[in-house]
Write a structure and sequence with these properties.
57% of the residues lie in helices and 17% in strands. By secondary structure, it is α+β, with helices and mostly antiparallel strands.
Length: 590
């Protein structure tokens, strides 16, 4: 039941904050001292204006205004369990006077810790005196607050609800941050790092905005008014930087990206300027960074909107998530504007910004985690496919070896075996010269066969000659395909070890093109440059990059290139075919 009561109070505080309630328990009178010229002893001279309990008192942006409040509680309604409640925890000071003397001090610029989180409270009477005099100040910012009479239990329940909201928010945020911190550590991605920084600043801003920072952690800190402005500004700046990363502004909108990144340095400078003003107590200059910070905030929104629109035109797949993240901002902003100009009477409470930040953190955190999980599954699937292809390739290699052995056996049987049988027969007949000629013919045949399998010139480093010879044999076997070879400025011989490796790579490229691309023409080219060797294999087939990537050949080529510090580039298109470009730096070549 108590949890249900907290939920009801939480919803009520979020949706109905600022609503006036008729109450005959007391009266509130106000007087606006525009330049703070008067003191408590001048109260008898004030022209008091009565307002209803719960009505919002708003003076707009000011530099040195004091709003005097005369609080009168009906004598028949005195209750030790009732408090005057000032419903704005970001007022600089709430000063209580009795007979012209200061007897109570609360506010953001004081070290006073309020008994309740959501409001500054004052007992309804001092002794038998039912009339209280309170001065409210909010320097260099907007003044808006309301005054009500509230029961202790109501104030306590509101405090518990706000604390429950914040610590629920904090728990979810820590969970998201932990998951994304792990992913950031795994991927070393700047996108996840920016999300973590944006979320941390968002948590700080929520703690300051809800009053938790002063209420629970730093009651003696006197500059939460400025800290609130700049933490909010940094939060939105980091949100903007995060959006530039998630929507790839650096590629799609480079100018907007440059402007948004420069804003963080401007705000950093403004922060230093504000700290200096506070340190030197030159408070009159604080309006400069405040105005500029608000201006940057506005320009930031405009540029982000423009960048998101451009990303939408380019059909970026993440635009829908960004639009979803800004929906609550739109409702909140419209409500704030319409309520400020009294177009509507319902005002969303300060807790709404906490819900917006939590919503954004949940949305973007879920998106990043989902994308990581999806990419992980894709990698696992590709690895499974690669393993399957490698197994298939191994089977094909074994089958190819068996085929080669069978062919060698047939060759030895058909040619060498027959020649040996004839040699024996001729020896029996005593035809020595014919035996000698037959043996020489068999030797030449075996030598040519071995050269075809592995050219003799390759042992001397004659790479281009060996490739040209091998390609001639392949062309004789594949009459329907033309394989062309060319070498440009390439020396006749190079290191035999390198020649052998590049020879095998070249044959692998040709074999992959024949197997996967179904080409009509294959071109193999060798280039000799002062810095490196370039091997280029192109075909006019159907585009074999995917098959080439998934095949066993790529791993074999990469393994050989790794030993030579070489690089591999593949481009493929269904219309133009496949181009494989290999660059190998010179090392110990001659």
């Amino acid at each position: 039941m108590r949890a249900l009561l907290h939920c009801k109070l939480l919803l009520l505080s979020i949706l109905l904050s600022g609503v006036s309630f008729s109450n005959d328990s007391g009266k509130v009178f106000i007087y606006v001292d525009s330049n703070s010229n008067f003191s408590a002893i001048d109260a008898s001279k004030f022209t008091w204006k009565e307002i209803k309990l719960g009505d919002k008192i708003s003076f707009g942006y000011n530099e040195n205004v004091t709003i005097w409040c005369k609080l009168v509680v009906n004598s028949g309604k005195k209750n030790q369990d009732t408090f005057w409640s000032f419903n704005n925890i970001h007022l600089d000071s709430v000063l209580l006077y009795h007979h012209g003397e200061l007897v109570g001090l609360q506010g953001d610029r004081t070290s006073y810790k309020s008994e309740f989180l959501n409001s500054y409270t004052i007992a309804p009477t001092i002794g038998n005196d039912s009339v209280l005099l309170v001065a409210v100040k909010k320097q260099l910012s907007f003044i808006d607050f309301s005054v009500e009479l509230k029961k202790r239990q109501e104030l306590f329940d509101e405090t518990e609800s706000s604390l429950s909201l914040f610590y629920t928010f904090l728990g979810v945020a820590i969970l998201l941050l932990s998951l994304n911190a792990y992913i950031c550590w795994q991927t070393r991605s700047k996108l996840y790092l920016v999300y973590i920084l944006y979320s941390l600043v968002g948590i700080i801003y929520v703690a300051v905005n809800m009053g938790i920072a002063k209420y629970s952690f730093f009651p003696n800190f006197l500059y939460f008014s400025e800290f609130r402005i700049f933490s909010g500004c940094y939060w939105f700046l980091l949100l903007g930087i995060f959006l530039t990363k998630i929507l790839d502004f650096q590629d799609s909108s480079p100018k907007i990206y440059t402007y948004l990144m420069s804003f963080q340095w401007i705000v950093a400078g403004l922060t230093v300027f504000a700290i200096v003003c506070l340190w030197t107590k030159t408070y009159s200059l604080l309006f400069i960074p405040s105005y500029i910070a608000y201006l940057i905030f506005f320009v930031n929104i405009v540029l982000l909107g423009l960048g998101v629109y451009r990303a939408y035109l380019q059909k970026h797949y993440r635009v829908k998530y960004v639009v979803l993240s800004f929906i609550p901002h739109i409702f909140w902003g419209l409500n704030m504007i319409l309520a400020a100009f009294d177009f509507i009477g319902l005002s969303i409470s300060k807790n709404w910004i906490s819900i917006i930040i939590l919503y954004e953190m949940l949305l973007f955190g879920w998106i990043l985690i989902k994308e990581y999980v999806d990419s992980f599954k894709t990698v696992q699937l590709l690895q499974a496919q690669v393993i399957a292809e490698e197994k298939k390739a191994i089977v094909e290699i074994e089958q190819s070896r068996l085929k080669e052995r069978r062919m060698m056996a047939e060759i030895l049987h058909d040619k060498v075996g027959i020649n040996l049988a004839r040699t024996i027969h001729l020896l029996e007949l005593g035809k020595q010269q014919e035996v000698k000629d037959l043996i020489q013919d068999t030797g030449v045949y075996i030598r040519n066969l071995s050269h075809r399998i592995l050219p003799k010139s390759l042992e001397m480093g004659a790479l281009s000659a060996s490739l040209r010879e091998q390609i001639e044999h392949v062309n004789s076997e594949y009459q329907e395909i033309n394989i062309r070879f060319a070498a440009y400025d390439f020396p006749e011989t190079i290191s035999s070890e390198r020649a052998f490796t590049i020879y095998l790579i070249s044959l692998e490229l040709i074999q992959n093109a024949l197997k996967h691309a179904l080409p009509e023409q294959i071109t193999l080219e060798l280039y000799w440059y002062p810095e490196n060797i370039v091997l280029c294999c192109t075909d006019d087939g159907c585009g074999s990059e995917q098959a080439f990537i998934m095949g066993f050949g790529l791993s074999s080529i990469k393994r050989r290139l790794t030993d030579m510090n070489g690089t591999l580039h593949i481009s493929s298109d269904n219309q133009t075919g496949t181009c494989v470009l290999i660059e190998i730096p010179h090392v110990n070549t001659h």
